[in-house]
Design brief:
alpha+beta; three-stranded antiparallel sheet; 3 strands
Length: about 90
């Protein structure tokens, strides 16, 4: 079951369970669409994977399957991320 994390790891924007702009990678790293598109170039800074729109958990399931309350805020080192992207593109 997905954690459904409450915020963007880079900018700390709130991303409630029904946020239409929440994006995740295969390891559930969570970022807002603005950071994914305009800062991260669609590449996860943690694993190097791509992003997909995070599914919305139905509100009827929240009591039995609550979303995570743990905020992960670790702004991306943009220079290191750019270098990683270049390395990935060379492969």
């Amino acid at each position: 079951m997905l954690d459904i994390r409450p915020s963007c790891e880079h900018c700390d924007k709130d991303l409630p369970y029904d946020a239409p702009d929440a994006m995740i990678c295969t390891f559930e790293c969570t970022f807002c669409r603005d950071c994914v598109e305009n800062v991260l170039d669609h590449i996860c800074p943690n694993c190097g994977g791509n992003f997909e729109k995070r599914p919305i958990r139905p509100s009827s399931a929240l009591k039995k399957y609550p979303v995570s309350e743990k905020r992960i805020h670790k702004p991306v080192d943009l220079e290191a991320h750019k270098k990683r992207i270049q390395t990935l593109l060379r492969k």
